[in-house]
Specification:
The chain is mainly beta. The chain has helices at about 130-140, 145-155; strands spanning about 10-15, 20, 25, 30, 35-40, 40-45, 45-50, 55, 60, 65, 70-75, 75-80, 85, 90, 95, 100-105, 110, 115, 120, 165-170, 175, 180, 185, 190-195, 195-200, 200-205, 210, 215, 220, 225-230, 230-235, 240, 245, 250-255, 255-260, 265, 270, 275. The protein has two domains: about 20-170, no CATH class; about 185-275, no CATH class. A hairpin with a 2-residue loop joins strand 2 (about 20) and strand 3. It is elongated, with a radius of gyration of 21 Å.
Length: about 280
Amino acid sequence: MDFSRDPLDELVVPDGTEAREVDLVTDGDVLIGGRSTVDFGVRGRNVLAGESVEFGGAIEAEGDCRLDMWCDVAENVLVGKDAYIGERVHVAGEMKVAGDLDIGDDVEIEEGFEANGWIVIRNPMPTIVFLFVYLKHLLLLGEEDTAQRLVSELVDEEQDADTDPLVIPGNATVSDDAWRVSTPASIGDDCRLHGNVRAETIDVGTETTIFGSLRARGDISIGEGTNIHGDLTTRDGNVTIDADARILGDVSCADLELGPNAEVDGTIRANGEVTMGTTERDPE
């Protein structure tokens, strides 16, 4: 992950992420900005959520779970290590923590909680929002090494360095119907997602399947072998569709670049140039 900028200024869906019926599943950490709505449950290594995040399902964290104040979880919270729960958090199910539980005032856990380690109740807890604001100021001051150390304390040190976190910006909406952000969106390789994607720009990796349309103000790029079950629409940008990708819908853009064997099953509306690649022949 690039720590030379604000880590919450882009929707990042890492390689291999899947939306499985009611759960959003990833191998790495999950970072969610404040006042976002995630209608899925979330399963990942460490789960960190800012203030007033709403979860439509359960949270399962292999490592730590940190929920800032006013978060709301519709089902259970299961934590493999330690949990840090801010004041006025609401959990509709039960909470089970394998390690220590640090919990703020006025927290409501409807079906009770248990922890194998220490249980500390205090007000207030260090907030995730404060940590990210502090991180942003460090980056603005050019203190990238200090920022890196801070992030290392927030995530599991045993996590593979090549495993990027799932990042959902603040004020986002993520559901089976739509993924809506006001930032750029980057979706990795070998992902399988449901829902229309709405973002500033959209970059999709290789061999990914998205059951929904993609709409952006700027450019949209589709990686090799990816299937999009919906339209591609950009207001001011260009669309690039790499080799062997397939779009089961219409494409509307300025310039369009089609790679070898790329397919568009719908109507193409391009205000500018349309460039079509060809497959290179092997020398005889």
